Amino acid sequence: MRFRRMIASGAVVVGVAAVTTVLMPNGVALAHGSMTFPASRTYACYEDGRAGSGGGDLNPTNPACVAAVAAGGKQPLWDWFGNLISQAAGKHREIIGDGKLCGPTTKFDAYNLGRSDWPTTSLRAGSTITIKYNAWAPHPGTWEQYVTKDGYNPNQPLRWSDLEAAPFNTVVNPPLGNGEYSWNATLPNKSGRHVIYSIWQRSDSPEAFYSCSDVVFNGGGGNPGDTTAPSAPGTPTATAAANSVALSWPAATDDVGVTGYQVYREAGATDVLVASTTSPSASVTGLTGATAYSFYVVAKDAAGNTSPPSSAVSVTTLPGSSPGTCAVTYTTPSVWSGGFTANVVVKNTGTSPVSPWSLVWDVPSGQTISSAWSADVAVSGGTATAKGVSWNTSIPAGGSISFGFNGAASGTPASPGAFTLNGASCGSV
Asked: How many CA within 13 A on the CB side of residue 77?
């Protein structure tokens, strides 16, 4: 039998002190957040509105913010942290059209206006900054920061083709403290007005958040006049093991010098960054045995220019089980006569992502599983197998995923004796 995840049928929106929190029927808050440094358009206009009101209301004075309020009202400012698509599931380029990147829903559409007078943050090109991202409700996930290409026209709504091909910064589960995420990022060597476009894709939900931060790059180290991208790296060669692939490729060339390479795994609409290196070789770990993968490489120079991608190499890992480490927390928060609800948290305690993942356990005698959510759960011959669904097929290093199911049992439901993740035994926490 195979039980598909259950999707909540609705949500209750509760407004408290101008902060909108979305609650699912089980009372779990959905995530909210946005870039506060460099300030996103919605956050910058919210702060501009606070400064212009003298307290109590929001009355922006910045011309672009005034135009946005005239077109879309003030509610997007009160909800500056809620620029989201709830069912994005990583398909950002498929579901967001050109000109809609800064406000992909009707509510935030006014923040797509093509203008050169949005509030800006001044940054030193090529420097290292601490990015700050507000977290109304913390959740694990991946943040990617893109920057616009040289020659970008701020008087036109932002298009996908206006962005550099690869993000200049990617972070998984950054540190969280005092209600915000923060992490260090090295800025590209750009000059003048640009947009930093941020995507936060949750790993425990298909929900994703988007923000445009208008910035002005000044000065900078390295060679800020360098606008020539490296050549494409050569086609990689791959040597497969059961759970890893060793890649090497002919080096790219550049008029100044190549400073690094980024290795991507092809994954449909949104490819996955799996390694960064300064040499023309890398090892990709945390893979599944007897599984086909495809990888390509992008080169970068000191000015932040990125090369065209190399040709992709396809490789199939050897049969075998994953040696990765893991820990499982299994709880039954609700038990009633003849039935129970189980919650399962799977933590990747290793140093490499586990993608895709498959958790296996023996169903205790006298128990059955009737439905599951946030995972596909199949039961055969007394053995249960759970696999990730579209938004949580990967468990990042040090990260966790969770899922649950309802079951039937006679008496107090016993906990499974052991779990294996991709063939490796898991500890318990």
From this structure: 24
